[in-house]
Every structure is written in C-alpha cells, then in structure tokens.
Amino acid sequence: MSDVRLPPLTRDWDRALADLREHGLCLVADALPSDMLGRARDALYRAVEDDACAGRRSAGFTLDRDAGNRRVWNLLNRDPLFAALAEHPLALHLVQATLGWPALLSNISGNIVGPGATAGVLHADQVFVPQPWPKRPQGLNVAWCIDDFTRDNGATEVLPGSHLLARNPRGDDDVRDLVPIEAPAGTALIFESRLWHRTGANTSRDAWRAAVFPFYTTPTYRTQENWFLSLAPEVVDAASDTLLTLLAYKTEHFGLVYGESPR
C-alpha cells in the first residue's frame, strides 16, 4: 500500500476519532494517569504469576508462533482495575461513536511479549464476520499500553489504511509496509476490527512489553468470552449498569427475563 503512515499521538478525542476513521487506528497520549498505570501493570504481571501457579495455559494460542507471547484471560476476575479500563470514558466515547450503543465487551485479555518472541500471525479482528463485510466496522479494540511500546520489544505492528480493503489478509499479502506502534506506557492504541495487525517480534535482550486489550463488538455477535460461565459472582454484583450492559447482563437488546431487562 502506498503512503503508509501512522497518525500522530493526540490528546484530542475528536481528532482521535477522525484518525480512527481515516487510518483505521488512533493513538491517544497520556490516556492513563501514572497511578492507574502502575496498578494495571502490577495487576497484569501478578495475573501471569497466578496463572503459572495454577497451571493455566498461557501460550501457544492461534495468533502466536511460539511460547514467548503470553496471554492472560478473563481479566475482570483478576482485579477491579480491569473493569475500570473496560468502561473507561475514552473507550466508551470511541465505542459509541464507532459501533453505536449498546455494544458488547467481547473479551478483555492481557498480552505480554517476552525477549526472543517471534512476530505473531497477521490478522484482522473481524474474522468472526462473514464476508463480504459490512461498510461499518463490527468491532473495536482498545489497547492500553502498560509498558513502553518500542520497535525492539514486540510493539504491535499495523498496516494503516488496511481497514478500507474490507477483507482478511491472505498468505500472499505483502507485510513489508507493516509499521510498529512506538508509544510510551499509558498510551491508548485504538483500532477498528478490520485493521490488519500482529504482535511484533521482541528482539530485545531483557525488555518485556505488556498491554491490556478490551475488545468491543456490536450486539449482533456472541462474545469471545462466555461471561455467564466465567465471571465470579462478586464481579457481577459490583458491576455498574454500564458494565452490565457491556456484559449483556442488562438491557432488552440482549434478552429479556419475564419481558423485562434484568436488574
């Protein structure tokens, strides 16, 4: 693709929305204050240790080529901080502007790339939508940069403008135009579900790269995470009305109980 370039970091949410529509992604600087960022980092890396102790699978999933890329699932059960990220005002602003409301939180997971990890599989998150794709995106990914994203430590690589192709990448597609997202910790990388992207290779000696990925979709599709089976009761009890809507526990759009919306 010609003229491949990233939109600049911005703090203007309207500018971010315009970038999202033009490039398929946007970058919002200083989206997380330092205290919230520190809590998120501690909680995510603690969750990795908890999974190791519990013997839960954390590597070898479809989009990863080796065990250097670690996945942490069902973050809502891990720490209340992740619920705050799922309904962060910036995320909800862009979700509502892009997908409409109500929307679903399809999944919220962590991705930690360790030294020596190879690049992941190029893909678009809208793989669950039958082709030909609708004119509007059906999903939105809000990647919270928990560590600095650099060219060497496995920063997410994207192909700006690929959302306009409105199809999944194929094996013969040229990946030479992929651009790594280099951004400081606390940045929000938001990209729509048609954008081609992958986890970058971590060629560093000792640097780790972590991010939290809440993924939102229109109400048409089932969520990736089965919240009704996976969520701890105390998480549901503590959830706000907004989060309950995102989880499909509330609102008539997702199924009535005796003719009314639950709770």
What does this structure look like?
This protein has a single domain, classed as Jelly Rolls, CATH 2.60.120.620. The chain has 263 residues and is an alpha+beta fold. It starts with 8 loop residues before the first strand and ends in a 17-residue tail after the last helix. The longest helix has 21 residues.
In short:
The protein has helices spanning 13-23, 34-54, 80-86, 89-99, 227-230, 233-238, 241-246, and strands at 9-10, 25-28, 69-72, 104-113, 139-145, 157-158, 179-180, 188-192, 197-198, 209-217.
Main beta sheet: strand number and arrangement?
7 strands, mixed
Share of residues in helices: 25-40%
Terminal residue distance:
49 Å
- H-E order: EHEHEHHEEEEEEEHHH
- Please tell me the overall pLDDT: 94
Count of discrete domains? 1
Tally the helices: 7
CATH superfamily: q2cbj1_9rhob like domain
Shape: globular
Strand order of the main beta sheet, please?
Answer: 1-2-8-5-10-4-3
- Round the Cα radius of gyration to an integer and report it: 18 Å
Low-confidence stretches: none
Question: Would you tell me which CATH topology applies?
Answer: Jelly Rolls
Quick tags:
263 residues, alpha+beta, Jelly Rolls, seven-stranded mixed β-sheet, three-stranded antiparallel β-sheet
